[in-house]
Write a structure and sequence with these properties.
Layout (H helix, E strand, L loop, with lengths): L2 H38 L29 H4 L1 E8 L2 E8 L4 H6 L10 H16 L8
Antiparallel strand pairs: 1-2
Helix pairs in contact: 1-4
Protein name: Phage protein, HK97 gp10 family
Length: 136
C-alpha cells in the first residue's frame, strides 16, 4: 500500500467521523428547536374567549394560543448533511400553520416561527460551537 492510498483511507475515515459528529449535532439542534417550539406554542393568549374553544385565543401579533394542541404536536424534523453544511429543520404538518404565521384577509398574523428561532438560537449556537457558522 502506497502513502497516497493510506492517506486517502485516513481522510475517508476522518470525513466519516466528521459527518457523524455533524449528524449528532444536527439532531441535537433539531431537538432544541422542538423543545422551544413546544414552549413557545404552550403560552395562553390574551385575546377573546370564545364559548366553543377551551382556552382564551391569542391577540393579533401574539403567538397562537393552544386550543386543540395539533399545532404543538404535529411536526416533522430532519437533519440534512450536504457537503460541509448541516441543516436542521422542523416543519409543521398542520395545514393552518401558514395561515396563523402569515395571517389571512380575516385574521391578523399570529407569528410563531421567529419567536421559536430567536429563543432557540443561543442553545443551537452553543451546540455547534465555533466550528460552525449557525444561521437560523
Amino acid at each position: 500500500m502506497g502513502v497516497e492510498a493510506e492517506f486517502q483511507a485516513c481522510a475517508k475515515n476522518l470525513n466519516d467521523s466528521i459527518k457523524r459528529e455533524m449528524a449528532r449535532k444536527g439532531a441535537m439542534a433539531t431537538n432544541t428547536l422542538r423543545n422551544v417550539e413546544l414552549e413557545v406554542l404552550s403560552k395562553g393568549g390574551s385575546g377573546k374567549k370564545y364559548k366553543r374553544l377551551p382556552n382564551r385565543s391569542s391577540a393579533p401579533g401574539e403567538t397562537p394560543a393552544p386550543q386543540s394542541g395539533n399545532l404543538r404536536q404535529d411536526w416533522n424534523d430532519e437533519t440534512l448533511i450536504e457537503g460541509n453544511r448541516v441543516t436542521s429543520r422542523l416543519k409543521s404538518n398542520v395545514k393552518y400553520a401558514g395561515w396563523l404565521e402569515d395571517g389571512t384577509k380575516k385574521m391578523a398574523k399570529r407569528p410563531f416561527v421567529n419567536p421559536i428561532k430567536k429563543k432557540a438560537e443561543p442553545e443551537v449556537v452553543k451546540i455547534f460551537g465555533s466550528d460552525f457558522e449557525v444561521t437560523l
